[in-house]
Amino acid sequence: MGEGIRVRLLIDKPADGAWNMAVDEAVLRMTSIRRNMLTVRLYMWERPTVSVGYFSRLTEGLLDRCKKRGIDVVRRLSGGGIVFHDDEVTYSVVLPKGLISDCSVLTVCKFVSEGVIIGLSELGVDGRLAHSVSACASGRVEGTIHGALPNAAEFCYAMHSPTDIVVGSAKLVGSAQARCNGAILQHGSVPLGWDKDMLRHLFGDGVLERHEFTSLEELLSYKPSVGDVIEALCVGFERAFGRALHVGKLSDDEVDLALRLAGRKWILRCS
Amino acid sequence: MELRIPEGLLYSPTHEWVKVDGNLATIGVTDFAQREMGELTYIELPDVGDHIEAGQPFGVIESVKASEEVYSPVSGTVVKVNERLLDDPTIVNQDPYGDGWLIVVEMPSSEETKALLTAQAYVEMLRREGRL
């Protein structure tokens, strides 16, 4: 990583989905212009929220089920499937293109995931990138869905990809990427626990039985605090990047851009 | 397989290629760009009749876990869209400079193409950035 690059840490208060996505995009856009900073952002969600990947299909059925339980819905700027954000810490890492020589999707994912994996080990969880344990010799990023329920067809945790962080064979961290002219954003979810009734409501009765995914609570037999998970992730990113994280805040132009984006772009568009 | 950068096309620093024929510009993404993304799963393109601006995004491509904007190397009006890609975006992976073309743009003038890179200059840019 270039010597002239600063590493900024943003720890944000829980916010609604539109704001969370708008801030991610604002940081991505400004990094694309300035290209002098890597940002690690850790955040939570004010209300339970379903986020839908840039191209994911949001069915009327899922939208109705979200409405019935008062769940917000937002579209992400990144690829990938549908994620239910509730009891979790979300990370986003934004880096300028060229910070690492190979900026392929998988290499950037590995670069960021290394920090998450070290952070998990701080909590006593032995996570690994699925790429390293699956037969994906081509380096291609391919997703597979095994026997998904109709309602769970695009549920991120029903999909297996080499970019997942797994414990044993169970998926713990799902992540996705958004790329623009000069910068790349990788964000992902670290679930502290799952609201299983809600998952059944959203994705179908068999979702827990059919698909192998887990949470920190299930792995550790207790639920770590948000503060502990944030601290562990900070240690992980510092070690992975070989740099101290400097606590910072959004710049004025990032705030201005996020306000404009949150007001229109990330409000739900159905497809 | 060796990276393909055909002579006779023009290239943008954001990894799009342009084939100029009079005032028409056929635009696609380079072999380098499709390799960075991996196998494409979705593609979003403008409509015929849309006006696009040089340096601004005109579409989005997605592999399983990543979405990426595609930037226009020239300004003009979209006169043709490769609709086959909407059903099978992997054509871009298989043949980025042929069947994987994205759009054709009618340019008011070809002035903007002077700022684009030749194949040789594009290779040099990739070398300078440590990507070759």
Defining key terms:
A: alpha+beta; 8-stranded mixed beta sheet; 3-stranded mixed beta sheet; B: alpha+beta; 3-stranded antiparallel beta sheet; 4 helices
Task: Give a short summary of the structure.
The complex is a heterodimer of chains A (271) and B (132). Chain A is of the alpha+beta class. Chain A has 9 helices and 13 strands.
Written description of the protein model:
The complex is a heterodimer of chains A (271) and B (132). Chain A has 271 residues and is of the alpha+beta class. Helix content of chain A is 35%, strand content 24%. In chain A, helix 1 (17-34) links the parallel strand 1 (6-11) and strand 2 (37-43). In chain A, helix 3 (105-122) crosses helix 8 (226-241). The N and C termini of chain A lie far apart (40 Å). With 132 residues, chain B is α+β, with helices and mostly antiparallel strands. In chain B, 20% of the residues lie in helices and 33% in strands. In chain B, strands 1-2-3-9-8-5 form a 6-stranded antiparallel β-sheet. A 3-stranded antiparallel β-sheet of chain B has the order 4-6-7. The longest helix of chain B is centred in the last third of the chain and has 10 residues, at 119-128.
Distance between the termini of chain A: 40 Å
Low-pLDDT sequence parts of chain A: 133-142
Unreliable spans of chain B:
none
Principal-axes geometry of chain A comes out as globular
Distance between the termini of chain B: 13 Å
Mean pLDDT of chain B: 96
Radius of gyration of chain B: 14 Å
Order of helices and strands of chain A: EHEEHEEEHEHEEEEEHHHHEH
Give me the count of strands of chain A: 13
Q: What strand line-up does the widest sheet of chain A have?
A: 7-10-11-12-6-2-1-13
Number of helices of chain B: 4
Strands side by side in the biggest sheet of chain B: 1-2-3-9-8-5
Determine the strand fraction of chain B and express it as a percent band: 25-35%
